[in-house]
Amino acid sequence: MGDYPLHLVQAPIRHRASPVKAGLIGVVTLAMCLFLAGATPRPQARSAAFAIPGMTAIGSPPAGPSWAPAATTDHGLLSIATAEKQRFALHTAGGDVTFLPGINLGSTTPGHQPGELSITAGQYRTWFAAMGWLGLRVLRIYTIHPPAFYRELARYNLANPASPLYLMQGIYLPDESYVQKQNVYDPAVTKAFRAEIEDASRAVRGRLSREPLRGRASGVWDTDVTPWLAAWIIGVEFDPYAGSASDTRNAAAPAVRGKYFRSTAQASPTERWLAARMNELAGYEAAEGVSEPIAFVNWPTTDPLRHPDEPLAQEDLFNLDANHVRPTADWPAGTFASYHAYPYYPDFQRHEPALQRYVYEGRTDPYAGYLAALRDHHSDMPTLVTEFGIPSSIGSAHNSPLGRTQGDHSEREAMRIDAELLRLIKDQGLAGGFLFGWADEWFKFTWNTIEHQDAERRQLWHDPLTNEQNFGLIAMDAAGSPDAVPEYLLDDEHAWPAQRVIARVDESYVNLRVALGTPLPSALTLGFDVLPGVTGPPAPGTGDRESDAAFELDLVARTGQAYLRRELDPMPLDYAVPQSQRGPAPQGWRRFELVVNRDLTVPSTGEKLPAELQNAGDLRYGTPADDSRALWYRDGDSLVVRVPWAMLGFADPSKHRVGVPTQGKLELVVSPGVGVTVSATGTDQPTGHVTWTNWNRVYYQERLKQGADQFRDAALETTTE
Question: Which Gene3D superfamilies match (predicted)?
């Protein structure tokens, strides 16, 4: 492990979502900063505790052979990368690079939906420098970014000629109505995609002007980044039902015999449609005298392999095969197979015998076996994993062999696994691994929390229970409004079990600091009342009948458990799990749990698999620096507690709205605030209500996640021949 710049142990800088200042990256300090560290001010100086110091600039890229482009010429076309047989070669001044460690970059920031493309020029500038320092050499984007992206990429590469960032440009379907229409050949879908392909070809060479239109970038593109354009990836993760129906509907679609790409005799209608789009893109590029590898997006749900042990029919219903779309001799850069492949989904990785027997690094490793199977299937083209990664979230959405679950990882653990997976991808003979993703994305949803949230305002708060919001190398930590001050709910040195309770909210948590009375209790319960007047059974460990949520904490064993009142338990919105399968809880209460797999049947064997749950309300003890998932710890005679909004039943804290499951649907009920009761040994101590102002603008802090140096080491190792 090398020496790391000084700024990586300093604090992050604060942002507001609109407008957002340029982001700088830190590593240790988490949201709440001085407040959680114990520097709680007296009332007359409350605001001083929340000042966030700035940081110095990011370090230089690591030294090594030159990555400056060294294009080759074939058929009169220049190529800085070529894909042939199972070899993807990036042609550089230091020699051909045959394994690419990369990163996926989204198009938005906290407080925004993805179509709002809210990243600023300053953020691009800082992020590119950070990517270079991390040893990342290829940047993949999914769609046309605003002009600032291309200007800043060129600026960075010209300033770092021996260590540029290469671009894999994606082209997204601007019209995804093929899913509803069950027809990718729909004229509107095809027309929109063809226009986007032409625009993308013009954007990368700085020859595009577009008027504002909802959901897409606009402006004037005036910067040519094609000297560093390594490849194209077009399309989306196809919906299997829509793809299957589209194939049936368009069985008579003609074969594609383009100048640059053709479909094989085995190609399905959808594969023919993709071949036509790839040929059109190649035509635009060839007219400019260049040739770059072109691929289409694929994922395990639509891979070309058969999976008879997959419990869910849709995961083996529809197939796309890159082998059926071939470049002609006039397209020297070739093609490759591009997969978004993760180690926890689909379930066939847990049940397929061949994958269960595959050995890597001295142990059975189904994910390594799956990637090897993809590599072997594509025997005459390179295979790249263009998305992989593990989220650093409290909540999980799926179990997996070898503990690579879809969530329930600390930042350090997630970074360790990401580094392990990058090395694994190279060791299996694949040509590249692109981590998903660069920054946490607040707008994201996942199957086992989507029904708990107000979809229209999900981007305005951050949920550590939703794994999809926590995939980034860069944390986007909720900071709360700089105008907010801590609330003193209680301040009485003679009170017991608590003498003082101070609260502050941010976009992720209700943050509490509880100064305990004498004698110190060995256990206590924090009761939370979000819907006053709604009575229920006593909260665990209390006589309080007004609580809707509770944290039961054992200060000696350093264990804790979160509960919700039965009427607020959101799990029935996801899946009907029998109470006998739920974890233990007092009468009328439910442990805060997430369903991570429905009950299923393995079709090849008939084996019945019960539903699987995660005890997401298992309250880890420790500071955020100890474990990013930790929610409480002792600081002298005080407790510092972070309470995720979801554990209080909120569906949209930005508008005070609690989600109440009602006849299978989520009803949104406005809460006046969060009443807090501290209970110990039969004494219930109401302390007051946490209040806040509704928000439409978010504030956040960018921070390099703990353990990111592990991924940096792996990225550098995989490019050392």
Answer: Glycosidases
For residue 194, pLDDT over 50 is answered with yes
> Where would I find the H helices in 28-167?
33-37, 121-133, 147-159
Question: Of the candidates 519, 528, 516, 486, which has an alpha carbon nearest to the alpha carbon of residue 503?
Answer: 486
CB 399 within 8 A of CB 595: no
Residue of 345, 292, 336 whose CA lies nearest to 315: 345
CA distances from 326 to 269, 376, 699, 714 (A): 15, 17, 48, 33
Tokens, residue 73? 């010429």
Question: Helix 366-377 vs helix 411-427: angle between axes, to the nearest 10 degrees?
Answer: 40
Cα radius of gyration (the chain)? 26
Half-sphere exposure of 50 (CA within 13 A, CB side): 23
Tokens found for residue 276 = 């036509």
- Give the β-pairing of 638-644 and 632-635: antiparallel
For 32-51, what is the mean pLDDT? 29
Domain boundaries, the chain: 72-476+703-718, 487-695
Alpha carbon distance 456, 439 (integer Å): 21
Interatomic CA distance for residues 648 and 68, integer angstroms: 53
Pairing of strands 638-644, 487-491: unpaired
Specify the CATH class of 72-476+703-718 in words. Answer: alpha beta
| The pLDDT of residue 271 | 98
The span from the CA of 421 to the CA of 345, in Å, is: 15
CA distances to 48, 230, 286, 617, 714 from 282, in Å? 58, 14, 6, 52, 34
